[in-house]
Write a structure and sequence with these properties.
The structure holds 2 protein chains of 2 kinds. Helix content of chain A is 70%, strand content 3%. Chain A has 17 helices and 3 strands. By secondary structure, chain B is an alpha+beta fold. In chain B, 36% of the residues lie in helices and 19% in strands. Chain B has 25 helices and 23 strands. Classes of the chains: A mainly alpha, B alpha+beta.
């Protein structure tokens, strides 16, 4: 077994660097790497099938692009693996300011697409800051919590963290991107949870969150305050009372698509929901439904199992992280991932409200793919520097 | 454990979560619950309810289209096709495939309009009226050039497809046009009317004549085809036939093409004769030739007529107008779509005299062989207006029995008889009208040849009901009364009496067959495409009208004398005809309204049958505004008999007579 150079004294000489690289490779969580690789592969396979009939005369239009994004994402992952998370903790303030700045820029110069402003056009690529923001948000707020760890029981710590969290959440919500705002909120909750915030405060926060949902959806409109756009609200309330909804077309088509896949899937040519466009947004928000239609229970289970593998390895990393900061960051990344999977997969099957959240590693889109792979890189980096790996040496 | 970590990295807060930490455990439980929910739901949807959703997705992704069946052929009694189908290429348009941006859509429709030579507004109207259908037929049939142009430039015309269709074709052109009728797309009103008949929008159904009467046999059963459509209803696959359409049944009818052709030529001949005689208003007419024993119609001609091909394929207002088939142009063309045999109403004039004679004998009002004076004029002693009724020949003064009076068509003889009917005591009722109705006048014949009118036999009750203070404020007190003149005019088939040529034909068939009323009909049988007969409702058997055979014999003698004795009114036409023909002329005065003219015109009639003793054919001919019966209608009828008996025309020349 090779000598591990240590996180703080290494990277000095050529020889040390080589040894460090070997060490990092040795200390990778290869089950997690297999899970990520499997997800990217299944994701590309899904995109290949689902978007096959979307662009006339070019069945691999979306697949080619998605492969390109995956390669860029792989580079981002490798870079993230090499960076000691301590670096993020030290510079959490600039990261926070940068995240908020990027999201704010979208609001200022972003272009409108389907009524939402989420993208910045950088020529070759439309860049969606809120996707990268999911990771940056966790890295920044984790830094604050780690610094205040000794006063974790103090309600003022919790309140100040919420103060930091609210700004980006509100900016994303204003884009408007309700789904991503909810992902940020879930990550915030997870970080508080992992950092050891007392149960009493967590219970209070949970109560406030429930009251907020009730207020925004029902009480607010009743007294004339409408924070949500009509379609957002109807999607959310449709989920509770589908029979009262006129705008449940997407949901019906999505459920029919999933169901019609049966055990083995209908294949590409017979998957009429996807091929004949009955299922809208089947390359992005509803890709799970399309994929399930084409590949059936077998294919859908494979995808869910890969997610489960990644989440299991992730939880292990939370438990064995070197320090509190790493644990918080890993927890935030994992819960954000879990939340996205549940909302996206759940909405295609009618057990979660419909919000425009992409399915990690699968939905067509570069920002999401790159940001998710970068987040996995951070997880792997945390693992490489964890107690578990060190104990092994 | 915590201390070692803290020692390694002193300025960093240690991770207080151990491997068995409760909080990681809680996070793990959440992951477990979430995935359990997702897997269960996935299992329920795909494995448990999968087949249900497969059905649902297939229903919406497949579009069922009706495939119109080929319509049955209409054949004459000897199997000659009168109406058949010809295959054609049609241009179809899928509106869902058109651009959605208004200006693009307009430009594309404009290009389609130019390519198919169908005006843009017409295409728009077709699309609008077929909103519930996936595609519409905009050009039927398409010419070869059009088909070539459109198939070469298929990519320039998204939403345009070429299809096959059957188009009605009449090998004999306008022959029996009003009898055969025409087909057309079902109208909204017809759809509303007939919800149970299984018709749907886009179906082609019979709109007139036999095509309409026997649509249920001719139409066949639509087949089904299906194709993939996307969520916007755009076609995404070729059409696959799932149920074959069942072709319609073939209709064999009682018409004989040769006799029909002869009848139509005879009708034109009669009209031409009338015009040559200076009857400028003669332009229409009707001829029926019928088997008197069972009512089978062998020929049914009505003039003027039209070319039924204007109803095949694309129907344009301009073509219809040119043929006088639109409400605006019908009058100028003298109503060519009207089957005058069923829908034309005329006073029968002297052809009605046998009715008066039979009624008078049945009511024992006179002796047929007793001589009565035939004079130039007659006036009724009971008539307070002292009106004088004239004989057609003012110089006659002779004693006549009934056969002679019929053959010579003496008006005053029948005026006297009419006056006798007027003078009958009230408890005898109105026997002349009762007998007229028994003979089928004022009644529907219940023929299958198409919609008919029932005509009018005027009665005392009818006068009272018709002339009221509201309908006739000036003279209703007088007009509502039945006066001697009414009976007198009715006796010679004038006054308010109105009949159709077919009613009159049926009456002469009754004279020919010994007193039985037949149901005039055209249907012979129906065969399915395999050649086996299809059961059809049968026509009413000839119904005896309980007239004294002796009375009938006297009338028949009168009709024979009318064609065989030199004073007979159609002796000049039938006197030397190789087959013995019996018949009666009629010259009926009718107030007619023509473009720029209103006045009294003589309607030229001839009705009769032959051979006299064993009649095979009864013919009624009418030349509208054609003058005397002997000069126009009788020569026309003679041509029909010539054709039927395959004999040469042997006319002496028409005679100026009643």
């Amino acid at each position: 077994m090779l000598e591990y150079a240590g996180s703080r004294s290494g990277f000095r000489t050529q020889r040390d660097e080589g040894a460090a690289l070997m060490g990092v490779l040795r200390s990778l969580d290869w089950l997690l790497v297999a899970g990520i690789g499997g997800l990217v592969a299944v994701g590309l396979w899904a995109v290949a099938g689902v978007t096959r009939f979307d662009v006339a005369h070019n069945p691999s239009y979306y697949l080619d692009r998605q492969i390109g994004y995956a390669i860029v994402g792989l580079v981002a992952l490798i870079v993230a693996v090499c960076i000691d998370p301590e670096l993020y903790r030290r510079y959490w303030r600039p990261i926070y300011v940068g995240t908020v700045g990027l999201i704010a820029v979208v609001l200022l110069i972003g272009r409108a697409a389907r009524g939402s402003t989420r993208w910045i056009n950088v020529g070759f690529f439309t860049f969606q800051p809120s996707e990268f923001g999911k990771l940056l948000f966790v890295l920044a707020l984790g830094g604050f919590l780690a610094d205040r760890a000794r006063s974790a029981n103090d309600p003022r710590t919790t309140l100040r963290l919420l103060g930091f969290a609210v700004l980006p959440i509100v900016l994303v919500f204003a884009q408007p991107d309700l789904g991503t705002a909810l992902v940020y909120s879930s990550a915030t909750g997870a970080m508080l949870f992992v950092s050891g915030t007392p149960w009493r405060q967590l219970t209070a926060l949970g109560t406030i969150a429930v009251l907020l949902v009730v207020g925004v959806l029902w009480a607010g409109p009743a007294v004339g305050v409408d924070l949500l756009k009509g379609y957002q609200k109807s999607r959310l309330t449709c989920f509770v009372q589908p029979s009262h909804c006129s705008s449940s077309y997407n949901l019906e088509q999505s459920i029919a698509a999933v169901g019609s896949g049966q055990v083995n899937g209908r294949g590409l040519n017979n998957a009429t929901q996807t091929r004949l466009n009955f299922l809208p947004e089947h390359g992005t928000d509803f890709i799970f439904a399309s994929y399930s239609e084409q590949r059936g229970f077998v294919g859908a289970s494979l995808l869910l199992a890969l997610y489960l593998l990644v989440l299991w390895r992730g939880l292990r990393i939370v438990a064995t992280a070197r320090d509190l900061y790493c644990a918080i960051v890993a927890g935030g990344i994992l819960v954000a991932l879990l939340f996205q999977i549940f909302i996206n997969v759940g909405m295609t099957m009618g057990i979660a409200p419909i919000t425009g959240i992409p399915l990690p590693f699968v939905s067509v889109g570069g920002s999401s793919m790159i940001a998710n792979l970068a987040a996995m890189g951070v997880l792997l980096s945390i693992h490489a520097r964890s107690r578990a790996v060190r104990r092994r040496r | 454990m915590a201390s070692t970590t803290a020692n390694d990295i002193p300025d960093v807060e240690p991770n207080r979560l151990g491997r068995p930490s409760m909080r990681v455990g809680i996070l793990g439980s959440i992951v477990f619950v979430v995935f359990a929910a997702l897997f269960l739901r996935l299992w329920a949807l795909q494995v448990l309810s999968g087949p249900k959703y497969v059905g649902q997705t297939q229903r919406q992704a497949f579009l069922s289209v009706r495939v119109q069946p080929p319509r049955g052929t209409i054949l004459d009694r000897y199997g000659r096709p009168l109406v058949m189908n010809s295959a054609a290429t049609v241009v179809q348009l899928w509106p869902s495939d058109l651009p959605t941006v208004y200006s693009d859509r307009r430009a594309e429709l404009g290009a389609i309009a130019r390519a198919t030579q169908v005006p843009l507004y017409e295409i728009s109207a077709i699309i609008k009226s077929h909103r519930n259908e996936p595609f519409v037929t905009i050009r039927e049939p398409a010419s070869k050039d059009m088909v070539a142009y459109l198939s070469e430039r298929a990519s320039e015309f998204p939403g345009v497809t070429l299809g096959r269709a059957y188009i009605r074709h009449s090998p004999y052109g306008s022959l029996a046009a009003q009898v055969l009728g025409y087909t057309g797309e079902i109208s909204q009103a017809q759809l509303n009317q007939d919800a149970k008949g299984g018709y749907v929008q886009g179906d082609v159904i019979g709109q007139a004549g036999l095509e309409a009467s026997y649509d249920s046999y001719l139409r066949g059963e639509a087949g089904a085809a299906r194709l993939h459509v996307d969520s916007l209803g755009r076609p995404r696959s070729a059409i696959q036939l799932t149920t074959l359409p069942k072709p319609g049944h073939d209709l064999r009818i009682t018409l004989d093409v040769k006799l029909q052709q002869a009848a139509e030529r005879a009708l034109q001949y009669g009209i031409q004769l009338a015009r040559n005689n200076g009857k400028w208003a003669a332009s229409g007419g009707a001829i029926v030739a019928m088997d008197p024993s069972d009512g089978a119609i062998l020929a049914m001609a009505s003039a003027p007529t039209y070319e039924p091909s204007v109803f095949s394929g694309r129907v344009t207002e301009r073509q219809l107008a040119a043929q006088g088939l639109t409400p605006k142009t019908a009058l100028a063309k003298n109503y060519p779509s009207l089957n005058r045999n069923l829908q034309g109403l005329y006073p029968p004039g002297s052809t009605f005299k046998p009715v008066t004679a039979l009624a008078g004998m049945e009511e024992n009002m006179f002796s047929p062989y007793a001589y009565q004076p035939c004079t130039g004029t007659f006036s009724s002693p009971q008539d307070r207006s002292h009106r004088t009724f004239h004989n057609w020949d003012p110089n006659v003064h002779q004693q006549m029995d009934l056969p002679t009076a019929l053959a010579y068509s003496c008006d005053t003889y029948f005026y006297r008889l009419g006056n006798q009917f007027y003078n009958l005591p009230a408890d005898r009722g109105q026997p002349l009208q009762r007998w007229a109705e028994a003979f089928g006048f004022g009644q529907l014949t219940h023929t299958d040849a198409g919609p008919e009118v029932q005509g009018l036999v005027p009665t005392i009750g009818w006068r009272e009901a018709t002339y009221t203070s509201i309908s006739d404020p000036g003279h209703w007190q007088v007009d509502r009364l039945w006066k001697p003149g009414d009976s007198i005019e009715l006796a010679i088939g004038q006054g308010n009496l109105l009949v159709t040529p077919l009613q009159l034909t049926r009456f002469y068939a009754l004279l020919a067959n010994g007193g039985k009323l037949v149901q005039p009909h055209l249907l012979l049988d129906v065969e399915n495409p395999n050649g086996t007969a299809v059961p059809v409702p049968s026509f009413a058997a000839p119904k005896p009208v309980n007239i004294d055979p002796a009375a009938l014999a006297v009338v028949r003698q009168g009709l024979v004398e009318g064609t065989h004795l030199p004073f007979g009114t159609s002796y000049g036409v039938f006197g030397h005809f190789p087959v013995s023909i019996a018949g009666k002329t009629g010259t009926a005065e009718k107030v007619v309204t023509l473009p720029g003219y209103t006045g009294i015109q003589d309607q030229s009639w001839w009705c009769g049958y032959g051979p006299t003793d064993n009649a095979k054919l009864v013919v009624c001919a009418l030349i509208e505004n054609g003058g005397h019966g002997g000069t126009a209608a009788a020569p026309a009828a003679e041509r029909v008999f010539s054709a039927f008996f395959h004999v040469k025309t042997t006319q002496l020349g028409s005679i100026h007579s009643d």
